[in-house]
Protein backbone atom coordinates (compact mmCIF):
# COMPACT_ATOMS: atom_id res chain seq x y z
CA UNK A 1 0.00 0.00 0.00
CA UNK A 2 2.83 2.39 0.91
CA UNK A 3 4.54 1.66 -2.39
CA UNK A 4 1.30 2.30 -4.30
CA UNK A 5 0.69 5.57 -2.46
CA UNK A 6 4.28 6.64 -3.12
CA UNK A 7 3.92 5.80 -6.80
CA UNK A 8 0.74 7.83 -7.00
CA UNK A 9 2.44 10.82 -5.36
CA UNK A 10 5.38 10.58 -7.77
CA UNK A 11 3.01 10.28 -10.74
CA UNK A 12 1.00 13.26 -9.55
CA UNK A 13 4.17 15.31 -8.98
CA UNK A 14 5.47 14.37 -12.41
CA UNK A 15 2.14 15.37 -14.03
CA UNK A 16 2.15 18.70 -12.19
CA UNK A 17 5.72 19.36 -13.34
CA UNK A 18 4.81 18.61 -16.96
CA UNK A 19 1.75 20.86 -16.79
CA UNK A 20 3.83 23.63 -15.21
CA UNK A 21 6.41 23.46 -17.98
CA UNK A 22 3.67 23.50 -20.63
CA UNK A 23 1.98 26.41 -18.88
CA UNK A 24 5.20 28.42 -18.92
CA UNK A 25 5.62 27.75 -22.63
CA UNK A 26 2.01 28.41 -23.62
CA UNK A 27 1.35 31.07 -20.95
CA UNK A 28 -2.41 30.46 -20.96
CA UNK A 29 -4.87 32.45 -18.94
CA UNK A 30 -7.57 29.93 -18.10
CA UNK A 31 -10.28 32.47 -17.38
CA UNK A 32 -9.51 33.90 -20.80
CA UNK A 33 -9.66 30.40 -22.29
CA UNK A 34 -13.14 29.81 -20.86
CA UNK A 35 -14.54 33.04 -22.29
CA UNK A 36 -12.67 32.49 -25.58
CA UNK A 37 -14.37 29.10 -25.91
CA UNK A 38 -17.77 30.72 -25.38
CA UNK A 39 -17.01 33.41 -27.99
CA UNK A 40 -15.77 30.76 -30.41
CA UNK A 41 -18.93 28.70 -29.94
CA UNK A 42 -21.11 31.75 -30.59
CA UNK A 43 -19.12 32.71 -33.68
CA UNK A 44 -19.87 29.44 -35.48
CA UNK A 45 -23.61 29.91 -35.11
CA UNK A 46 -25.45 30.86 -38.35
CA UNK A 47 -25.09 34.30 -39.93
CA UNK A 48 -26.70 35.89 -43.00
CA UNK A 49 -24.80 33.82 -45.55
CA UNK A 50 -23.32 30.32 -45.63
CA UNK A 51 -19.56 30.47 -45.06
CA UNK A 52 -16.75 28.15 -46.04
CA UNK A 53 -14.11 27.04 -43.54
CA UNK A 54 -11.67 29.83 -44.49
CA UNK A 55 -14.04 32.71 -43.76
CA UNK A 56 -15.37 30.97 -40.67
CA UNK A 57 -11.87 30.30 -39.37
CA UNK A 58 -10.88 33.95 -39.69
CA UNK A 59 -13.97 35.28 -37.98
CA UNK A 60 -13.91 32.63 -35.22
CA UNK A 61 -10.25 33.30 -34.51
CA UNK A 62 -10.90 37.02 -34.08
CA UNK A 63 -13.92 36.35 -31.86
CA UNK A 64 -12.01 33.84 -29.72
CA UNK A 65 -9.21 36.38 -29.25
CA UNK A 66 -11.76 39.00 -28.16
CA UNK A 67 -13.20 36.50 -25.70
CA UNK A 68 -9.74 35.68 -24.40
CA UNK A 69 -9.10 39.36 -23.74
CA UNK A 70 -12.45 39.72 -21.97
CA UNK A 71 -11.66 36.72 -19.77
CA UNK A 72 -8.25 38.13 -18.87
CA UNK A 73 -9.91 41.39 -17.89
CA UNK A 74 -12.45 39.59 -15.71
CA UNK A 75 -9.68 37.66 -13.95
CA UNK A 76 -7.71 40.86 -13.36
CA UNK A 77 -10.78 42.48 -11.80
CA UNK A 78 -11.29 39.38 -9.63
CA UNK A 79 -7.68 39.51 -8.41
CA UNK A 80 -7.91 43.24 -7.70
CA UNK A 81 -11.28 43.53 -5.99
CA UNK A 82 -12.49 40.09 -4.87
CA UNK A 83 -9.56 37.89 -3.92
CA UNK A 84 -8.21 40.22 -1.16
CA UNK A 85 -11.51 39.77 0.69
CA UNK A 86 -11.62 35.96 0.45
CA UNK A 87 -10.84 33.98 3.59
CA UNK A 88 -10.91 30.55 1.93
CA UNK A 89 -7.46 29.01 1.61
CA UNK A 90 -6.34 28.15 -1.95
CA UNK A 91 -6.69 24.50 -3.03
CA UNK A 92 -3.65 22.22 -3.31
CA UNK A 93 -1.44 22.65 -6.33
CA UNK A 94 -2.47 19.36 -7.88
CA UNK A 95 -6.15 20.33 -7.65
CA UNK A 96 -5.53 23.62 -9.41
CA UNK A 97 -3.68 21.89 -12.22
CA UNK A 98 -6.36 19.21 -12.50
CA UNK A 99 -8.97 21.95 -12.93
CA UNK A 100 -6.82 23.65 -15.57
CA UNK A 101 -6.41 20.38 -17.44
CA UNK A 102 -10.17 19.83 -17.30
CA UNK A 103 -10.77 23.34 -18.66
CA UNK A 104 -8.37 22.76 -21.54
CA UNK A 105 -9.90 19.40 -22.46
CA UNK A 106 -13.43 20.74 -22.15
CA UNK A 107 -12.56 23.72 -24.38
CA UNK A 108 -11.18 21.46 -27.12
CA UNK A 109 -14.12 19.06 -26.98
CA UNK A 110 -16.68 21.87 -26.87
CA UNK A 111 -15.11 23.54 -29.90
CA UNK A 112 -15.13 20.25 -31.82
CA UNK A 113 -18.78 19.58 -31.00
CA UNK A 114 -19.76 23.13 -32.01
CA UNK A 115 -17.96 22.71 -35.33
CA UNK A 116 -19.91 19.54 -36.06
CA UNK A 117 -23.17 21.34 -35.30
CA UNK A 118 -22.03 24.41 -37.24
CA UNK A 119 -21.43 22.29 -40.34
CA UNK A 120 -25.10 21.23 -40.14
CA UNK A 121 -26.18 24.86 -39.80
CA UNK A 122 -24.06 25.85 -42.78
CA UNK A 123 -25.67 23.15 -44.91
CA UNK A 124 -29.11 24.38 -43.87
CA UNK A 125 -28.22 27.99 -44.76
CA UNK A 126 -26.84 26.87 -48.11
CA UNK A 127 -30.03 24.89 -48.82
CA UNK A 128 -32.13 28.02 -48.22
CA UNK A 129 -30.25 29.61 -51.12
CA UNK A 130 -30.26 26.58 -53.38
CA UNK A 131 -26.56 25.92 -52.86
CA UNK A 132 -24.61 22.82 -51.91
CA UNK A 133 -23.29 22.84 -48.35
CA UNK A 134 -19.96 21.96 -46.75
CA UNK A 135 -18.99 18.57 -45.36
CA UNK A 136 -18.39 18.07 -41.66
CA UNK A 137 -14.85 16.78 -42.16
CA UNK A 138 -13.87 19.80 -44.27
CA UNK A 139 -15.43 22.20 -41.77
CA UNK A 140 -13.29 20.89 -38.91
CA UNK A 141 -10.40 22.87 -40.45
CA UNK A 142 -12.07 25.93 -38.95
CA UNK A 143 -10.68 24.91 -35.56
CA UNK A 144 -7.06 24.83 -36.74
CA UNK A 145 -7.30 28.17 -38.54
CA UNK A 146 -9.11 29.79 -35.60
CA UNK A 147 -6.34 28.78 -33.22
CA UNK A 148 -3.73 30.26 -35.57
CA UNK A 149 -5.64 33.52 -35.98
CA UNK A 150 -6.31 33.73 -32.24
CA UNK A 151 -2.61 33.26 -31.44
CA UNK A 152 -1.67 36.06 -33.83
CA UNK A 153 -4.25 38.44 -32.34
CA UNK A 154 -3.19 37.64 -28.76
CA UNK A 155 0.47 38.08 -29.74
CA UNK A 156 -0.34 41.53 -31.11
CA UNK A 157 -2.13 42.41 -27.88
CA UNK A 158 0.83 41.27 -25.78
CA UNK A 159 3.17 43.33 -27.94
CA UNK A 160 1.01 46.38 -27.36
CA UNK A 161 0.98 45.65 -23.62
CA UNK A 162 4.77 45.44 -23.61
CA UNK A 163 4.98 48.80 -25.37
CA UNK A 164 2.62 50.34 -22.82
CA UNK A 165 4.70 49.02 -19.90
CA UNK A 166 7.88 50.33 -21.51
CA UNK A 167 6.30 53.75 -21.93
CA UNK A 168 5.13 53.61 -18.32
CA UNK A 169 8.69 52.87 -17.16
CA UNK A 170 10.06 55.79 -19.17
CA UNK A 171 7.37 58.15 -17.90
CA UNK A 172 8.06 57.10 -14.33
CA UNK A 173 11.81 57.47 -14.72
CA UNK A 174 12.17 60.64 -16.79
CA UNK A 175 8.92 62.58 -16.29
CA UNK A 176 8.40 61.51 -12.68
CA UNK A 177 4.88 60.28 -13.29
CA UNK A 178 3.74 58.35 -10.19
CA UNK A 179 4.17 54.59 -10.56
CA UNK A 180 0.41 54.02 -10.07
CA UNK A 181 -0.48 56.38 -12.92
CA UNK A 182 2.33 55.51 -15.31
CA UNK A 183 0.61 52.55 -17.06
CA UNK A 184 -2.52 54.60 -17.73
CA UNK A 185 -0.45 57.49 -19.02
CA UNK A 186 1.58 55.10 -21.18
CA UNK A 187 -1.60 53.72 -22.72
CA UNK A 188 -2.88 57.25 -23.33
CA UNK A 189 0.35 58.25 -25.07
CA UNK A 190 0.22 55.16 -27.28
CA UNK A 191 -3.43 55.73 -28.21
CA UNK A 192 -2.87 59.41 -29.03
CA UNK A 193 0.17 58.63 -31.17
CA UNK A 194 -1.58 55.78 -32.97
CA UNK A 195 -4.73 57.78 -33.72
CA UNK A 196 -2.69 60.75 -34.87
CA UNK A 197 -0.62 58.62 -37.21
CA UNK A 198 -3.50 56.61 -38.67
CA UNK A 199 -5.81 59.59 -39.04
CA UNK A 200 -3.04 61.46 -40.77
CA UNK A 201 0.04 60.07 -42.42
CA UNK A 202 -0.78 56.36 -42.35
CA UNK A 203 -4.37 56.64 -43.59
CA UNK A 204 -3.43 59.07 -46.34
CA UNK A 205 -0.54 56.88 -47.37
CA UNK A 206 -2.71 53.74 -47.41
CA UNK A 207 -5.47 55.25 -49.51
CA UNK A 208 -2.94 56.95 -51.79
CA UNK A 209 -1.30 53.59 -52.45
CA UNK A 210 -4.71 51.91 -52.90
CA UNK A 211 -5.84 54.69 -55.24
CA UNK A 212 -2.65 54.33 -57.28
CA UNK A 213 -3.03 50.54 -57.44
CA UNK A 214 -6.63 50.65 -58.60
CA UNK A 215 -5.91 53.47 -61.05
CA UNK A 216 -3.67 50.98 -62.87
CA UNK A 217 -6.68 48.66 -63.25
CA UNK A 218 -8.74 51.64 -64.36
CA UNK A 219 -6.32 52.17 -67.26
CA UNK A 220 -6.69 48.58 -68.42
CA UNK A 221 -9.18 47.60 -71.06
CA UNK A 222 -10.58 44.21 -71.97
CA UNK A 223 -10.11 43.00 -75.53
CA UNK A 224 -13.91 42.67 -75.73
CA UNK A 225 -14.33 46.38 -74.91
CA UNK A 226 -14.14 47.92 -78.40
CA UNK A 227 -14.50 51.63 -79.05
CA UNK A 228 -18.04 52.40 -80.24
CA UNK A 229 -18.45 54.15 -83.56
CA UNK A 230 -22.05 55.26 -83.24
CA UNK A 231 -22.47 58.87 -82.00
CA UNK A 232 -25.03 57.77 -79.37
CA UNK A 233 -22.18 56.49 -77.19
CA UNK A 234 -19.56 58.34 -75.17
CA UNK A 235 -16.06 57.39 -76.25
CA UNK A 236 -17.06 57.36 -79.94
CA UNK A 237 -15.19 59.56 -82.45
CA UNK A 238 -17.98 62.16 -82.10
CA UNK A 239 -17.87 62.18 -78.28
CA UNK A 240 -16.56 64.97 -76.04
CA UNK A 241 -15.35 62.26 -73.63
CA UNK A 242 -12.39 60.50 -75.22
CA UNK A 243 -12.43 56.71 -75.30
CA UNK A 244 -9.13 56.33 -73.44
CA UNK A 245 -10.36 58.54 -70.56
CA UNK A 246 -13.46 56.53 -69.66
CA UNK A 247 -11.72 54.00 -67.42
CA UNK A 248 -12.09 50.23 -67.20
CA UNK A 249 -15.79 50.18 -66.25
CA UNK A 250 -16.74 53.11 -68.47
CA UNK A 251 -15.24 51.55 -71.58
CA UNK A 252 -17.16 48.35 -70.91
CA UNK A 253 -20.41 50.22 -70.31
CA UNK A 254 -20.37 52.21 -73.56
CA UNK A 255 -19.07 49.34 -75.72
CA UNK A 256 -21.73 46.83 -74.65
CA UNK A 257 -25.45 46.68 -74.10
CA UNK A 258 -28.35 45.88 -76.42
CA UNK A 259 -28.12 47.33 -79.93
CA UNK A 260 -31.05 48.53 -82.00
CA UNK A 261 -31.11 45.24 -83.93
CA UNK A 262 -30.90 43.15 -80.77
CA UNK A 263 -33.74 45.08 -79.12
CA UNK A 264 -35.93 44.67 -82.18
CA UNK A 265 -35.18 40.94 -82.30
CA UNK A 266 -36.05 40.37 -78.64
CA UNK A 267 -39.14 42.59 -78.46
CA UNK A 268 -40.42 42.05 -82.01
CA UNK A 269 -40.97 45.80 -82.34
CA UNK A 270 -39.20 48.77 -84.00
CA UNK A 271 -36.36 50.17 -81.89
CA UNK A 272 -33.87 53.00 -81.58
CA UNK A 273 -30.17 52.91 -80.76
CA UNK A 274 -29.93 53.48 -76.96
CA UNK A 275 -27.88 56.42 -75.74
CA UNK A 276 -25.19 55.71 -73.17
CA UNK A 277 -23.24 58.66 -71.74
CA UNK A 278 -20.29 58.13 -69.43
CA UNK A 279 -17.66 60.49 -68.04
CA UNK A 280 -14.52 59.07 -66.43
CA UNK A 281 -12.26 60.66 -63.84
CA UNK A 282 -9.74 61.44 -66.58
CA UNK A 283 -12.31 62.81 -69.02
CA UNK A 284 -12.27 66.35 -67.61
CA UNK A 285 -9.48 68.89 -67.51
CA UNK A 286 -8.83 71.93 -65.35
CA UNK A 287 -11.85 73.30 -63.53
CA UNK A 288 -14.45 71.50 -65.63
CA UNK A 289 -16.83 69.31 -63.64
CA UNK A 290 -17.71 65.77 -64.72
CA UNK A 291 -21.41 66.63 -64.43
CA UNK A 292 -21.06 69.53 -66.87
CA UNK A 293 -19.29 67.35 -69.43
CA UNK A 294 -21.98 64.70 -68.95
CA UNK A 295 -24.71 67.22 -69.73
CA UNK A 296 -22.81 68.37 -72.82
CA UNK A 297 -22.73 64.73 -73.93
CA UNK A 298 -26.47 64.41 -73.30
CA UNK A 299 -27.14 67.47 -75.45
CA UNK A 300 -24.82 66.23 -78.19
CA UNK A 301 -26.58 62.87 -78.41
CA UNK A 302 -30.11 64.29 -78.21
CA UNK A 303 -30.75 62.50 -74.92
CA UNK A 304 -33.24 65.09 -73.67
CA UNK A 305 -35.54 64.18 -76.56
CA UNK A 306 -35.70 60.51 -75.60
CA UNK A 307 -38.69 58.98 -73.85
CA UNK A 308 -36.75 58.00 -70.72
CA UNK A 309 -33.60 59.46 -69.18
CA UNK A 310 -31.90 57.55 -66.35
CA UNK A 311 -29.37 59.21 -64.04
CA UNK A 312 -27.10 56.54 -62.56
CA UNK A 313 -24.77 57.00 -59.60
CA UNK A 314 -22.02 54.42 -60.00
CA UNK A 315 -20.31 52.28 -57.39
CA UNK A 316 -16.78 53.13 -56.25
CA UNK A 317 -14.93 51.90 -59.35
CA UNK A 318 -17.41 53.51 -61.72
CA UNK A 319 -19.36 50.30 -62.36
CA UNK A 320 -22.86 50.48 -63.85
CA UNK A 321 -25.14 47.45 -63.64
CA UNK A 322 -25.52 46.05 -67.16
CA UNK A 323 -28.71 44.33 -66.01
CA UNK A 324 -30.31 47.58 -64.85
CA UNK A 325 -29.22 49.50 -67.94
CA UNK A 326 -30.22 46.81 -70.41
CA UNK A 327 -33.59 46.26 -68.75
CA UNK A 328 -34.80 49.84 -69.24
CA UNK A 329 -33.42 49.90 -72.80
CA UNK A 330 -35.31 46.75 -73.80
CA UNK A 331 -38.47 47.93 -72.07
CA UNK A 332 -38.62 51.20 -74.03
CA UNK A 333 -37.33 49.91 -77.36
CA UNK A 334 -34.06 51.80 -77.04
CA UNK A 335 -35.82 55.18 -76.79
CA UNK A 336 -33.72 55.85 -73.71
CA UNK A 337 -30.63 57.64 -72.46
CA UNK A 338 -28.50 56.60 -69.50
CA UNK A 339 -25.88 58.88 -67.97
CA UNK A 340 -23.23 58.10 -65.34
CA UNK A 341 -19.98 59.57 -64.03
CA UNK A 342 -17.00 58.04 -62.26
CA UNK A 343 -15.91 59.54 -58.93
CA UNK A 344 -13.26 57.09 -57.68
CA UNK A 345 -10.80 54.39 -58.67
CA UNK A 346 -11.43 52.48 -55.43
CA UNK A 347 -13.92 49.65 -54.91
CA UNK A 348 -17.04 50.59 -52.96
CA UNK A 349 -15.75 49.24 -49.63
CA UNK A 350 -12.59 51.36 -49.77
CA UNK A 351 -14.51 54.35 -51.15
CA UNK A 352 -16.92 54.01 -48.24
CA UNK A 353 -14.03 54.06 -45.76
CA UNK A 354 -11.88 56.67 -47.51
CA UNK A 355 -14.46 59.26 -48.47
CA UNK A 356 -18.08 58.29 -48.82
CA UNK A 357 -18.77 61.98 -49.40
CA UNK A 358 -17.43 61.58 -52.95
CA UNK A 359 -20.35 59.35 -53.88
CA UNK A 360 -22.83 61.80 -52.37
CA UNK A 361 -21.23 64.81 -54.08
CA UNK A 362 -21.04 63.03 -57.44
CA UNK A 363 -24.64 61.87 -57.23
CA UNK A 364 -25.94 65.32 -56.34
CA UNK A 365 -23.82 67.17 -58.91
CA UNK A 366 -24.89 64.92 -61.76
CA UNK A 367 -28.58 64.89 -60.93
CA UNK A 368 -28.75 68.64 -60.32
CA UNK A 369 -27.02 69.36 -63.62
CA UNK A 370 -29.37 67.04 -65.53
CA UNK A 371 -32.50 68.25 -63.74
CA UNK A 372 -31.73 71.88 -64.51
CA UNK A 373 -31.82 71.10 -68.22
CA UNK A 374 -34.94 68.97 -67.96
CA UNK A 375 -36.86 71.47 -65.83
CA UNK A 376 -36.60 74.34 -68.36
CA UNK A 377 -38.23 72.30 -71.10
CA UNK A 378 -42.01 72.37 -71.60
CA UNK A 379 -43.63 69.53 -69.62
CA UNK A 380 -44.79 67.76 -72.78
CA UNK A 381 -41.22 67.72 -74.12
CA UNK A 382 -39.51 66.40 -71.04
CA UNK A 383 -38.22 62.83 -70.85
CA UNK A 384 -39.33 60.62 -67.99
CA UNK A 385 -36.57 61.25 -65.46
CA UNK A 386 -35.48 58.21 -63.41
CA UNK A 387 -32.68 57.71 -60.89
CA UNK A 388 -30.81 54.50 -60.16
CA UNK A 389 -28.08 53.36 -57.78
CA UNK A 390 -26.80 50.07 -56.41
CA UNK A 391 -24.91 49.57 -53.15
CA UNK A 392 -22.79 52.70 -52.53
CA UNK A 393 -24.30 54.12 -55.70
CA UNK A 394 -27.73 54.16 -54.06
CA UNK A 395 -26.29 56.23 -51.22
CA UNK A 396 -24.87 58.74 -53.68
CA UNK A 397 -28.11 58.82 -55.63
CA UNK A 398 -30.17 59.47 -52.49
CA UNK A 399 -27.90 62.39 -51.58
CA UNK A 400 -29.37 64.49 -54.41
CA UNK A 401 -32.60 64.87 -52.44
CA UNK A 402 -33.38 66.47 -49.08
CA UNK A 403 -36.40 64.28 -48.52
CA UNK A 404 -39.35 62.47 -50.04
CA UNK A 405 -41.15 65.67 -51.05
CA UNK A 406 -38.23 66.91 -53.16
CA UNK A 407 -37.68 63.44 -54.59
CA UNK A 408 -41.29 63.17 -55.74
CA UNK A 409 -41.25 66.68 -57.17
CA UNK A 410 -38.19 66.11 -59.35
CA UNK A 411 -38.24 62.52 -60.62
CA UNK A 412 -40.63 60.15 -62.30
CA UNK A 413 -39.31 57.14 -60.40
CA UNK A 414 -36.36 55.83 -58.39
CA UNK A 415 -34.87 52.34 -58.18
CA UNK A 416 -32.30 51.77 -55.44
CA UNK A 417 -30.78 48.30 -55.08
CA UNK A 418 -29.04 46.79 -52.06
CA UNK A 419 -28.85 50.07 -50.11
CA UNK A 420 -26.22 50.28 -47.35
CA UNK A 421 -27.60 50.57 -43.83
CA UNK A 422 -26.23 54.11 -43.57
CA UNK A 423 -28.40 55.47 -46.42
CA UNK A 424 -30.13 58.55 -45.04
CA UNK A 425 -33.51 58.32 -46.78
CA UNK A 426 -33.64 54.54 -46.47
CA UNK A 427 -33.12 54.78 -42.71
CA UNK A 428 -35.87 57.38 -42.43
CA UNK A 429 -38.37 55.22 -44.28
CA UNK A 430 -37.46 52.03 -42.44
CA UNK A 431 -37.39 53.60 -38.97
CA UNK A 432 -40.82 55.16 -39.60
CA UNK A 433 -42.36 52.03 -41.10
CA UNK A 434 -45.96 51.14 -40.36
CA UNK A 435 -46.54 49.28 -37.08
CA UNK A 436 -46.51 45.54 -37.54
CA UNK A 437 -44.29 45.54 -40.63
CA UNK A 438 -40.83 43.97 -40.40
CA UNK A 439 -37.53 45.72 -40.97
CA UNK A 440 -36.64 43.23 -43.71
CA UNK A 441 -39.94 43.96 -45.48
CA UNK A 442 -41.09 47.37 -44.24
CA UNK A 443 -44.28 49.10 -45.27
CA UNK A 444 -44.03 52.88 -45.31
CA UNK A 445 -47.20 54.97 -45.31
CA UNK A 446 -49.24 51.98 -46.47
CA UNK A 447 -47.03 51.66 -49.58
CA UNK A 448 -48.51 54.84 -51.06
CA UNK A 449 -45.25 55.96 -52.74
CA UNK A 450 -42.26 54.00 -51.37
CA UNK A 451 -42.05 50.20 -51.45
CA UNK A 452 -39.50 47.55 -50.48
CA UNK A 453 -39.18 44.16 -52.12
CA UNK A 454 -36.98 41.07 -52.14
CA UNK A 455 -38.81 39.42 -55.04
CA UNK A 456 -41.34 40.14 -57.76
CA UNK A 457 -44.39 39.27 -55.67
CA UNK A 458 -43.47 41.72 -52.91
CA UNK A 459 -43.53 44.64 -55.36
CA UNK A 460 -47.33 44.29 -55.37
CA UNK A 461 -47.53 44.54 -51.57
CA UNK A 462 -49.43 46.03 -49.94
CA UNK A 463 -52.41 45.79 -52.27
CA UNK A 464 -53.41 49.40 -51.62
CA UNK A 465 -52.96 52.27 -54.10
CA UNK A 466 -49.40 52.98 -55.29
CA UNK A 467 -49.16 56.53 -56.59
CA UNK A 468 -46.59 57.79 -59.07
CA UNK A 469 -43.82 58.74 -58.98
CA UNK A 470 -42.98 55.36 -57.48
CA UNK A 471 -39.91 54.68 -55.34
CA UNK A 472 -38.56 51.12 -55.02
CA UNK A 473 -35.88 49.66 -52.78
CA UNK A 474 -34.76 46.13 -53.61
CA UNK A 475 -33.29 44.46 -50.55
CA UNK A 476 -32.73 40.85 -49.56
CA UNK A 477 -33.06 39.69 -45.98
CA UNK A 478 -29.68 37.97 -46.47
CA UNK A 479 -27.81 40.95 -47.96
CA UNK A 480 -25.05 41.95 -45.51
CA UNK A 481 -24.53 45.26 -47.33
CA UNK A 482 -28.05 46.25 -46.29
CA UNK A 483 -27.82 45.05 -42.69
CA UNK A 484 -24.20 45.73 -41.69
CA UNK A 485 -23.84 48.53 -39.16
CA UNK A 486 -21.45 49.41 -36.31
CA UNK A 487 -24.54 49.35 -34.10
CA UNK A 488 -24.41 45.54 -34.28
CA UNK A 489 -21.55 45.64 -31.77
CA UNK A 490 -23.78 46.60 -28.85
CA UNK A 491 -27.38 46.69 -30.11
CA UNK A 492 -29.72 43.96 -31.25
CA UNK A 493 -31.31 45.03 -34.57
CA UNK A 494 -34.99 44.74 -35.32
CA UNK A 495 -34.31 42.30 -38.16
CA UNK A 496 -33.06 39.80 -35.58
CA UNK A 497 -35.85 40.55 -33.11
CA UNK A 498 -38.58 40.03 -35.69
CA UNK A 499 -39.33 36.92 -37.78
CA UNK A 500 -36.41 36.27 -40.13
CA UNK A 501 -36.45 36.63 -43.88
CA UNK A 502 -37.15 33.49 -45.89
CA UNK A 503 -33.47 32.90 -46.75
CA UNK A 504 -32.00 33.59 -43.29
CA UNK A 505 -31.57 30.76 -40.79
CA UNK A 506 -34.02 30.77 -37.90
CA UNK A 507 -31.05 29.76 -35.73
CA UNK A 508 -29.27 33.09 -36.23
CA UNK A 509 -29.01 35.02 -32.97
CA UNK A 510 -27.55 38.35 -31.91
CA UNK A 511 -24.54 38.39 -29.62
CA UNK A 512 -22.50 41.50 -28.66
CA UNK A 513 -19.37 41.85 -30.81
CA UNK A 514 -19.85 38.38 -32.31
CA UNK A 515 -22.70 39.24 -34.69
CA UNK A 516 -20.88 42.36 -35.84
CA UNK A 517 -17.84 40.33 -36.88
CA UNK A 518 -20.01 37.65 -38.48
CA UNK A 519 -21.87 40.14 -40.68
CA UNK A 520 -18.58 41.94 -41.41
CA UNK A 521 -17.21 38.65 -42.75
CA UNK A 522 -20.40 38.17 -44.78
CA UNK A 523 -19.65 41.45 -46.60
CA UNK A 524 -16.69 39.83 -48.32
CA UNK A 525 -18.95 37.09 -49.70
CA UNK A 526 -22.02 39.18 -50.46
CA UNK A 527 -22.09 38.22 -54.15
CA UNK A 528 -20.79 34.68 -53.65
CA UNK A 529 -24.30 33.21 -53.54
CA UNK A 530 -27.04 32.49 -56.05
CA UNK A 531 -29.28 35.14 -57.63
CA UNK A 532 -32.12 36.17 -55.35
CA UNK A 533 -29.96 36.10 -52.22
CA UNK A 534 -27.21 38.15 -50.61
CA UNK A 535 -26.22 41.06 -52.86
CA UNK A 536 -27.20 39.22 -56.05
CA UNK A 537 -30.37 40.86 -57.39
CA UNK A 538 -30.17 39.55 -60.95
CA UNK A 539 -33.18 40.18 -63.16
CA UNK A 540 -35.26 41.47 -60.24
CA UNK A 541 -34.22 44.94 -61.42
CA UNK A 542 -36.35 44.35 -64.53
CA UNK A 543 -39.36 43.80 -62.28
CA UNK A 544 -38.39 46.91 -60.34
CA UNK A 545 -38.38 49.09 -63.45
CA UNK A 546 -41.63 47.50 -64.63
CA UNK A 547 -43.28 48.31 -61.30
CA UNK A 548 -42.04 51.91 -61.33
CA UNK A 549 -42.73 52.97 -64.92
CA UNK A 550 -44.11 50.24 -67.21
CA UNK A 551 -44.41 51.16 -70.90
CA UNK A 552 -47.97 51.26 -72.31
CA UNK A 553 -47.55 47.98 -74.22
CA UNK A 554 -45.99 46.00 -71.36
CA UNK A 555 -47.04 42.34 -71.11
CA UNK A 556 -45.88 39.32 -69.06
CA UNK A 557 -44.75 37.58 -72.26
CA UNK A 558 -42.57 40.53 -73.27
CA UNK A 559 -41.16 40.66 -69.75
CA UNK A 560 -40.02 37.04 -69.90
CA UNK A 561 -38.42 37.45 -73.34
CA UNK A 562 -36.45 40.44 -72.07
CA UNK A 563 -35.52 38.58 -68.89
CA UNK A 564 -34.08 35.67 -70.86
CA UNK A 565 -32.01 38.06 -72.99
CA UNK A 566 -30.71 39.92 -69.91
CA UNK A 567 -29.72 36.72 -68.10
CA UNK A 568 -27.81 35.47 -71.16
CA UNK A 569 -25.98 38.80 -71.48
CA UNK A 570 -25.12 38.80 -67.76
CA UNK A 571 -23.65 35.30 -67.99
CA UNK A 572 -21.49 36.42 -70.91
CA UNK A 573 -20.25 39.42 -68.94
CA UNK A 574 -19.34 37.27 -65.94
CA UNK A 575 -17.32 34.94 -68.14
CA UNK A 576 -15.41 37.83 -69.68
CA UNK A 577 -14.84 40.00 -66.61
Provide an overview of this structure.
- With 577 residues, the chain is an alpha/beta fold.
- Helix 3 (53-82) packs antiparallel against helix 20 and helix 12 runs antiparallel to helix 22.
- The chain has helices at 2-26, 30-43, 53-82, 93-128, 136-139, 141-174, 182-199, 201-219, 247-255, 260-267, 290-301, 322-331, 348-355, 357-375, 392-398, 404-410, 424-431, 480-483, 494-497, 514-523, 540-548, 556-576; strands at residues 275-279, 308-313, 336-341, 384-390, 413-417, 450-453, 470-474.
- It starts with a helix and ends with a helix.
- The protein is built from 22 helices and 7 strands.
- The radius of gyration is 30 Å and the shape is elongated.
- The longest helix has 36 residues, at 93-128.
- It has a 7-stranded parallel sheet with strand order 1-3-2-4-5-7-6, with helices on both faces.
Amino acid sequence: MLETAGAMRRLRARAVAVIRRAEVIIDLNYAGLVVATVFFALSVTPSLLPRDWLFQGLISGINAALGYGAGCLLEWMFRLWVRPHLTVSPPPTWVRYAVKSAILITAVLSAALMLVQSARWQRESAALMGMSGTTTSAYLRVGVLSVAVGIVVVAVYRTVRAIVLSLAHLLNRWVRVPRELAPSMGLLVLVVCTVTIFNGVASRAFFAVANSAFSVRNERSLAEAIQPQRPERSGSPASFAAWETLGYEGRWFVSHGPTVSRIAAVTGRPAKEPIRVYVGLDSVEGEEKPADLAVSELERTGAFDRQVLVVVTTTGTGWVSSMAAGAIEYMYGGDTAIVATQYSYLPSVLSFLADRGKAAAAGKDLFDAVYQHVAVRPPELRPKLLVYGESLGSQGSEAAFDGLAELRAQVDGALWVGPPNSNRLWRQFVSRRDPGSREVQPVYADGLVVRFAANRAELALPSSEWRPPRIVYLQHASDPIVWWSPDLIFSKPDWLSEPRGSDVSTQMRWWPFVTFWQVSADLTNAVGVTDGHGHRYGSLVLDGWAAILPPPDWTPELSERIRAALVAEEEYEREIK
